[in-house]
Amino acid sequence: MLVFAAASSAVFFPATAAAKIERTVEKTFQVQSGAKLSVRTTGGKVRVEPGDVQSVRIVARQIFPKANTDADADAIAKSLDLVMEQSGNSVSASAKYVRSAWGRASGYVEFDVTVPRSCDATLTTSGGDVIVGDIAGAVHARTSGGDVKLGRIGGPVDARTSGGDVTLAGCAQNAALVTSGGNVEAGPAAGDLQITTSGGNIRINGVGGAVNARTSGGTINANLAQISNECVLITSGGEVSVQFDKSSTLLLDAVTNGGRVWAGDNVRIDTLAGGHGKNRLSGKVNGGGPLVKLRASGGNIDVRAR
């Protein structure tokens, strides 16, 4: 069933490919600055890209992997509920699959959306990737079975996946990145950064606020530049490597249960406990400052200044 807002135009394009039938529905909504977008789908990808526009353009692709004919697609489409509508300055799109005799994998919907650069986006899918370009608003992304790939985001970020990787090119505010089964890579974040993964590696490149990053099964590589807030990096199954500006002032507390702690020659540290090449190294770097807590259960800890 397709439900449309009365004030918007819709275009319908059927297309048939070998062993797969796709049908496309397109709608455009006029919005003001600071618009809000909400997208929810089952089994499909969600992609959001910014444009120099004052509108939200949604392209929804209905994909029927089990359909061999248009008649098959028509039958399956009866169990796909697709809604695209506007309320004030908010635009929403949703696609819900209803169980039928064809089976749960009989159809799904992917969304490609173009938005104003200042738009906030809340995006949810149970089985595909979430991809967002460089937008100035907030991003909340959820997927149960795909990757989350975010550009440079101006607002706060909350991105979570149960089965994929999370990448963030940059964030002007706070960011929380969570995955249960993949890697996490975060570019420069001006605010606080929270990262959690149960089965992957973590890579961080620049943070302005506090950092709390934890993995149960991978390595952590953090390029923190100038450290001005508390930093906690913990892994239960790998190594920790940290780099920072040689002028940074911090209180280092590094402990590993399965390796050694190594500090670069240009790390000026007044040792309080342990020592270089031991399983613990704690001390004041350049007179002391914010706490940098490093923990590893299955590898070395490497601390370097540049």
- Uncertain ranges: 1-18
Class inferred from helices and paired strands:
mainly beta
| Average of per-residue pLDDT values | 90
Q: Could you tell me the number of beta strands?
A: 29
What is the global morphology?
elongated
- β-strand percent reads over 45%
Terminal residue distance = 60 Å
The number of helical elements comes to 1
The spatial strand order of the largest sheet comes to 1-7-8-4-10-12-14-16-18-20-22-28-24-27-26
* Biggest beta sheet summary: 15 strands, mixed
Question: Radius of gyration, Cα only, in angstroms?
Answer: 24 Å
Order of helices and strands: EEEEEEHEEEEEEEEEEEEEEEEEEEEEEE
Kindly state the percentage of residues in helix: under 10%
Written account of the structure:
The chain has 306 residues and is mainly β. A hairpin with a 5-residue loop joins strand 26 (269-274) and strand 27 (280-285). The chain has 1 helix and 29 strands. The chain has a domain at 1-119. Residues 1-18 have low confidence and may be disordered. A 15-stranded mixed β-sheet has the order 1-7-8-4-10-12-14-16-18-20-22-28-24-27-26, with no helix packed on it. A 14-stranded mixed β-sheet has the order 2-3-6-9-5-11-13-15-17-19-21-23-29-25.
